[in-house]
Amino acid sequence: MKELIRKYLQEASRFEATGPDELEAYRIKYLGKKGIIPELFSRFRNLDPSEKKETGKLINELKELVSNRVREQKEKLETTHSQSSAIDLSLPGEPYQLGSRHPVSIVKNEMIGILQRMGFTIAEGPDIEDDWHNFTALNFPLEHPARDMQDTFFIEKNPDILLRTHTSGVQVRVMEQNEPPIRIIAPGRVFRNEAISARAHCIFHQIEGLYIDRDVSWADLRQALLYFSKEMFGKDTQIRLRPSFFPFTEPSAELDISCMICGGKGCPVCKYSGWVEILGCGMVDPNVLASCHIDPKMYSGYAFGMGIERTALNIYQIHDLRLFFENDIRFLNQFKSAI
Ligand code: DAH
After folding, report:
1. Distance CA 173, CA 170 (A)
2. Number of helices and strands in the chain (H, E)
3. Is the CB of 152 inside a 6 Å radius of any atom of ligand 1?
4. DSSP state of 43
5. Where are the alpha helices (DSSP H) in the chain?
6. Are 211 and 249 in contact (CB under 8 A)?
7. What proportion of the chain, given as a percentage, has pLDDT over 70?
8. Nearest alpha carbon, ligand 1 atom 8
9. What confidence score (pLDDT) does residue 236 get?
10. How far is CA 167 from each of CA 61, 103, 142, 150, 326, rounded to the nearest angstrom?
């Protein structure tokens, strides 16, 4: 019997479990109710007393060895198991999604950068504006169609409060609070009560510019716009100013640039005219200066305002304005390299 136990001792000490099932089978084989060790103990009872001492020692040795082995192997399996599930170096890495700037932001940042280099600083005003800053101080007659419910989102309970229809109202806020010289730009979101289509949206972005000082002239305006256009659209860009009307400027004009796509030869972007309209501008109307407590006899100035989406549409030759607002990743990803 001692020989048999020694054989078990050897066998049991060599055991290495490759999984929990195998380990459990090993435990049952030796320690289970009908296992080897209980069986040895029952045989031990019938042994000759002279044999008992040594045999008993061997059985206890076997029991201890198997118990230790089960405990050790269990711990080993648990740590290798948790390690392998936490870090599997053969798995592909977590994909790291790089974002991209929105095309409207790219164009806006570029415009801001150029205008800042020209000496303009950024001013801000609220999206929710009052009638005075959006219309009245800007010389809009009471019956002007822009005040109409068709174009403006009014706040129902108080028609004096509205969502600004342009960034020109920031001019008023700045002039009310500052003495000339004033040289600011106001980028921001504007709102119009318009049907959404490929060319129009109820939310879009503008940048307003304002320069007020002594003796500011039309030539200053023209030169500033020429410099801006060349920086923004390329050094060969030509400009032309077409007479126009805005209540807050007199005289007023619209600025066209030679088409940034075809250089003036004619293409779908310029509708084969060679020219693309970029912004509205003019000399600040004396009524506006007076409304903001700036003496029109002492000071003059120019202002301009441009739509950012419209320019982005032209630069990137996008045919539908709505794409800017849908946040479709497939569309936005195309501007990764443009940052
Ligand atoms: N506020 C005008 C618009 O939303 C754009 C504009 C035109 C701004 C002429 C100006 C300006 O400052 O002088 O259509």
Report:
1. 5
2. 12, 10
3. no
4. H
5. 2-14, 20-31, 36-45, 49-86, 103-117, 131-134, 169-177, 218-233, 286-291, 308-316, 323-326, 329-332
6. no
7. 97
8. 305
9. 94
10. 91, 20, 19, 19, 23
Closest residue by Cα to residue 62 from 105, 109, 111, 1: 1
Residue type, 121: T
For residue 296, report the distance from its CA to the centre of ligand 1, in Å: 20
Give the whole-angstrom CA distance, residue 231 versus residue 242. 21
CA-based radius of gyration for the chain: 41
Q: What are the residue ranges spanned by the domains of the chain?
A: 2-82, 103-338
pLDDT tens digits along 97-137: 778 899 999 999 999 999 999 999 999 999 999 999 999 99
CA-nearest residue for atom 4, ligand 1, is: 166
To the nearest 10°, the Cα dihedral for 27, 29, 33, 37? -90
Amino acid identity of 191? F
Ligand 1 centre distance from Cα of residue 61 (Å): 97
Kindly state the tokens that stand for 99: 């974002």
DSSP 8-state code for residue 232: H
**How far apart (Å, rounded) are the C-alpha atoms in residues 333 and 55?**
79
Handedness of CA 256, 258, 259, 265 (dihedral sign): positive
CATH topology for the 103-338 domain: BirA Bifunctional Protein; domain 2 (3.30.930)
Q: Report the atom number in ligand 1 closest to the C-alpha of 284.
A: 13
Token pair, residue 116, equals 């800042």
Kindly state if the Cβ of 301 falls inside 6 Å of ligand 1.
no
CA angle 288, 307, 260 (to 5 degrees): 125
Pairing of strands 121-122, 182-191: parallel
Query: Atom 6, ligand 1: which residue's CA is nearest?
Result: 305
Instruction: Determine the length of the chain.
Output: 339
DSSP code of 327? Answer: -
Say whether pLDDT at 218 is over 70. yes
Average pLDDT over residues 62-78: 89
Cβ contact 302:211 at 8 Å: yes
Q: Band of the pLDDT at 337, cuts 50, 70, 90? A: low
